[in-house]
Amino acid sequence: MQRHYFDHNATTPIDPQVLDAMMPALREVSGNASSIHSFGQDARLLVESARLQAADFLRCEPKEVVFTSGGTESDNLAILGAVRAAAGDRKHVVTTAIEHPAVLQTCGQLEREGVTVDYLPVGPSGVVDIADVSAALRPETVLVSVMHANNELGTIQPIAEIAATAHAVGALFHADAVQSAGKLPLDVDTLGVDLLTISGHKIYAPKGVGALYVRKGVEIESIQFGGRHERARRPGTENVPGIVGLGAACELASQRLAVESARQAALRDRLEQAILSQIANTWVNAAGSPRTPNTTNIGFGGIEGEPLLISLDLKGFAVSSGAACSSGAVEPSHVLLAIGLSREQARSCLRLSIGCGTAAEDVDRFLAVLPAVVERLRALAPAGR
Q1: Residues 60, 107, 325, 356: which is the catalytic one?
Q2: CA-based angle 93:94:100, to the nearest 5?
Q3: What is the C-alpha to C-alpha distance for residues 199 and 208, in angstroms, rounded to an integer?
Q4: What is the pTM of this model?
Q5: N or C: which terminal CB in the chain sees fewer CB atoms within 10 Å?
Q6: Contact between residue 46 and residue 240 where contact means Cβ atoms under 8 Å apart
Q7: Is 107 assigned a catalytic role?
Q8: How confident is the model at residue 382 (pLDDT cuts 50, 70, 90)?
């Protein structure tokens, strides 16, 4: 059975060129990058070369790039590190209701530490209102954290405007750019961010590596202990092969961005149009908002997304549902609830995310199979759904 991957927002395969770049670090360079002997300096050279590649990708200075284990750690370091480093006892953070759990749960930890957090609504557009951001800001606001692009909807937030609004009251601004990296241009000065998160496995690098941009002059407190690596911001022996892979992936992403964005957007649009025209009682969530070119989130009335996901997987198609399994219970997506869907509607959604390896033939085969699968599940659904 041929298999077709429509879940690139969850993770991407390692690009062969990225793997080739990593092989010397795996086979030949065995030293600790913090050692001063020649073995260590060979490893250090690879790390710093990758730092240059990441800095070029983000349009920043190399010393502003901190390598981490991935997006979750970068979000934790940015949010906890910035808030804990801030002076004063009264501290306030602003974020949105549709952030990734790496942000939402980190903000929850801050609340347990006595920090006040406001979670802003987004409405059907999936985009936060600048007026809501402005109204939420206070003199004690330390940090505003808003994702650049949503992982479920693909909706793009007005990051530069939000950053300027935060800076007007002296707050720092952090953007989780895990889902926008490689899909949208990332220029930290244009965006106006003080802190920005990326993750390797979303841009065809290996899992277990990421980076945090920290603007020069911004103070963050380390949230781990055990060494002075990464300018004392992230202790631990450097993951040299992973870092090399991330650097190579950043360079490839820069080279491919314009062509791939246009190609993937055309495939995504064709996919959406065909589903809406061929299958009744379907809709695209946040369809009128600016979105990343590879992402669509589609509701299928009358059925649940989880059985649809499983049925498609049995046919060879990997997709993602609008529900999450927690402690054995399937819960609707907090993002879909935040844009105003009912719990039943939220459970009926699928996210389709295409990537560099997705061809027109993959879309054609998916469209050839999907209508019959939906029809069969609707026929099996309990009366009244």
Answers
A1: 325
A2: 105
A3: 8
A4: 0.96
A5: N
A6: yes
A7: no
A8: confident
